[in-house]
Design goal:
13 helices, 2 domains, single chain, AhpD-like, 255 residues
Length: 255
């Protein structure tokens, strides 16, 4: 592509995501051409992840940032890319682990405004009637699939009574409840995790999940791409720091 073709492609991608040319936020000399060429095309136009997976890091990062207008636009873009409405909501619920409840609930509210405008409604889930013991067992099974023999290291170790006092609930309600909810599969949840840990600069967790992501069908390139696709919404230094951690994790694991 020539630079002009690149800019035009990025502009088309931006418009498709709901930001028109006359948006006041673009009203600065040369700014629209710059972001169209770089952020909307050179970064957002990468095809390492399929289109419906590629919006997951953006949704996660925007939930973390709390950018209401951009979140609404990205929800629309995600639906247009083929992500189901329930999947959009699940990404925001997953993001509570990295962003906290207020940001997640703001993002859910933004998504529901887009759904309402499109005539979309989601049915409620049936009651979860599993026992605590069943949730713990389901959580352990998800952890084993994702992390393998590394599942009980660091803050996840039962031997560390300080961290495990909180982490035990994460096994039950994170792995055993959140990760088995319908709407997205474990692979997509891990894409969100990579994006969330990158956004929040939680580098120890990012290091662990970068390697574990390979266990659920992501390639090394796709793991890195989950961090790269946060760059337009978080800024380049945060994404680059995340990529440095991911690269080191792969080197340490010899993969």
């Amino acid at each position: 592509m020539t630079r002009e073709e690149n800019r035009n492609a990025g502009a088309g991608r931006r418009r498709a995501a709901g930001q028109p040319d006359d948006d006041p936020g673009l009203n600065a000399p040369g700014y629209a051409a710059y972001v169209d060429e770089y952020y909307h095309q050179d970064i957002s136009g990468r095809d390492i992840l399929p289109a419906d997976d590629r919006v997951i890091p953006a949704l996660t990062a925007l939930c973390f940032r709390g950018a209401e207008k951009a979140t609404e636009r990205m929800v629309g873009a995600a639906l247009d890319a083929g992500l189901e409405p329930r999947a959009v909501i699940e990404i925001f619920i997953q993001s509570a682990l990295y962003s906290g409840l207020p940001r997640t609930e703001e993002a859910i509210a933004a998504a529901n405004r887009v759904f309402a405008a499109r005539g979309i409604s989601l049915p409620d889930d049936p009651e979860d009637t599993r026992t605590v013991a069943q949730m713990d067992a389901d959580g352990a099974a998800v952890m084993a699939k994702l992390h393998g023999p590394r599942q009980a290291g660091g803050y996840a170790s039962p031997d560390n009574t300080v961290t495990f006092s909180l982490y035990q609930g994460a096994i039950r309600h994170g792995y055993g409840q959140l990760c088995v909810r319908p709407g997205v599969d474990l692979r997509q949840r891990v894409i969100a995790a990579i994006a969330g840990f990158t956004s929040a600069a939680l580098h120890n967790s990012l290091r662990k999940f970068a390697f574990s992501a390979l266990n659920v069908g992501l390639s090394k390139e796709q793991v890195a791409e989950a961090a790269i696709q946060t760059a337009p919404w978080n800024g380049l230094p945060i994404a680059l720091n995340g990529l440095t951690v991911i690269s080191a994790a792969f080197d340490e694991a010899g993969v």
